[in-house]
Hemerythrin domain-containing protein
Amino acid sequence: MNQRKINELVDDNYVYASVLYYFGIKFYDYSEKTLEQACTERGLNVKTVTKKLESAKTKEEAPLLLNQYPVDLIITYLQHAHYLFIKEKLPYIAQIIQGFNADHKDYNVIEKDLKFVFPLFVEDFIHHIYEEEDTLFYYIKTLDKFINENKGNISHVYYLMERSSLQRYAIEHEEHDDEMQGIRKITNGYSMDDKTPLHVKVIYEELKELEKSLVTHAHVENEILFPKALMLEKEAKNKFSQKVGFN
C-alpha cells in the first residue's frame, strides 16, 4: 500500500479519501504521489496512516433498534448525528466540492452548480438542525421529564403545550425530508460510469452516503421519535385534565 499512488488507493475505495483528508492529505493534491511520499511531505508516520486506511471500510449504516429506547436516548442519538453532520460530514464534502476543478466539458456546469448550491444547502440544513434542537427537542424533553420523571414547572409545561404542536412539527419536518432533491438533479442522480473522473466519483459517493444518512435520520425522527412524543403529549394533556377535574 505504501508504494501505491494516492489516486489508485482512492479509486479502489473512495472512503480512503476522507481518511486521508483528516490526516491533511487532499487526495486531488497528491494524486500522483505514493502514500509514502505524501506522508513524508506531511510529516506523518506512514505506518499510522496505513493502519487507519486498512481499517477503513465502505460506510454502512448500523441497524437501528432505537424504537426500544426511551425518548431521551433517541434524542441523544439524533443530537450526536447532528454533531457529526456539522463538524465532520458537511465540512469534508464542502471541501472536496470547493477543490473540484472539472476542466472537462461534461462536468464544467456541474462543478459551477455544485459550488453554488452546496453551500446554500449546508446553510439551510444547519439552520434547520439548530432550530430543531432549540424547539422540537426541547419541547419533547420537557414533556418526557414532566411525565416520566415528574419534573418541570407545570405552568411552563402548559405554556409550551399551548404554543407547540407536534402535528405541526411533523408536517414541517416532512417538507425537509428531501433536502437533496436539487443536488440529485444537478448530478443526474449521482450518475457515474467507467469514464467518470475520480474526483467526481468521490464527490458523488459522498453525496450518496450523505443522502442515505439523512434518510435514516428522517426515519428515526418520523417513525420512532414522533410517535413516542405524541404519546407523551397525550399523557401530559390527560394529566392536566385530571388536575383540572380535581380542582
Notes: The first helix runs from residue 6 to 12. The radius of gyration is 23 Å. The chain has ten helices and no strands. The chain has a mean pLDDT of 89.
